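Re: folding output
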Amino acid sequence: MGRVRNSNGTFKSVLETGGVQRIKELLAQGNSLDVISNEFGCSKTTIWRRLHAESIYLNPPVTLPKKELVNLYCQQNKSIREIANIFRCDASTVSRKLQQIGIAIRNHRQSMRLAGDQKKTARCLNHHSNWRGGRNHLPYSPSMRSAHFWIRQHYGKAHRCDLNSGHISTVYDWANISWQYKKERGDWLMLCHSCHYWFDHPEISQEQEKKLSPDTRFAYLEGRRRRNGKETD
């Protein structure tokens, strides 16, 4: 495909040749801006600008409703990139529209902090395996950590095993009986780490139960007995 030249050998401009119609034809044939700019001997920006002057857009203008934009960015706390993906446009388009309607753009630090809070909430609600309260047999309780802090603050660190005083350990835990994490002393026991593990252990089969040692079996059965119908399916 040859370039359009003047009689003196120089390239003709898009304006001189009235080449908008030719550009339309080339676009209809599936040619890229690189190919079209090579034919006219100009840059892609010149072609783009000439098309815009004739109100011809390769990508139709995107309409961003103000109400929906405010809802996504300010209330749902979505990022600019997430909003751009929803409207199928560039992130700079969304950013420019937010500034036009007077909404302050979050800086990098605010965005990272917000993203971290959302991930933390998702881990808790989805019972992430790394979250201590996220086991399938435990109910979701946002007050679990505060309840443990309360019992230690009012009654000190656990220092014995209430199920077996003969258990000597370097680590003792406060164990909640009902799994409701009430801030009541009667809802807590001091246990060694081993007894605590089996006190909170989910139900196992009778065959597995028979294989447990006497102390372990006692801690397991005592936990189930004390909860007695308070377990969450």
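--- second protein (sequence, then structure) ---
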Amino acid sequence: MLAALLCPLFAPARTPAHVLQGMALLEEGMSRWDPVRLEQALEHFRRSTASNPEQFEPWYLKGLAEFHLMLVHESRAAEADKALTAKLRKDAEHSMDRTRALKQDFGEASALKAVLMGMAIAEHPATAIWRGPRLQHLQKEALALDPENPRIWYLMGMSRHFAPRPFGSRKKAREYLLRAAELFEHDQPGRRVFRYPAWGHAHCLMFLGEISREENNNREAAEFYREALAVNPHLDGIRKLLKEIQK
């Protein structure tokens, strides 16, 4: 089913079977927050970037797998392997750099690169002096290239939600995430640069719930959590958050 929806992917050539397999694994890994599936997907995309280094699509897929695998490992908190998450972040940055070099009008890659730079700033605060302006430039570039892309608004909202002062802003995070949620409702495979698996919708709604919870609005938070689970019922972490505020 997925292969039928995604093909053709790398026009004009036929999509390699291992790339389609990787995308199926990536979609499942992102949906279920499954590090095993994400690692398996990543292996497919490493193979594809090695054999097709001048195609932007496998580089983007590789970076997307690295990004989500990093988030999964970070979500383990005390059990997180900091060295591994740092390596995945750097690898994802490299993948986005290669994507942007090969496809300069791909706004989503610029937005993802900006988020990764924000994470690097959090890890090394002194680098904010030079990384901060570059991050802001990437975000402006992303919006200029693709203002109707929900993942760009989601990534900007996530950045504002987690960024330390003076870069963070709960008000701006909410504004960006609400815009993303609106755009996600109309996100269709045909409007994306190529037909990679959709991502970000459920977590966008989850972060809106988190902001509402921080503002002591548990009723609204619960509504956002329920909407997130309606989009993706496999995210047990969101179900746990919902149970916590219903006690």
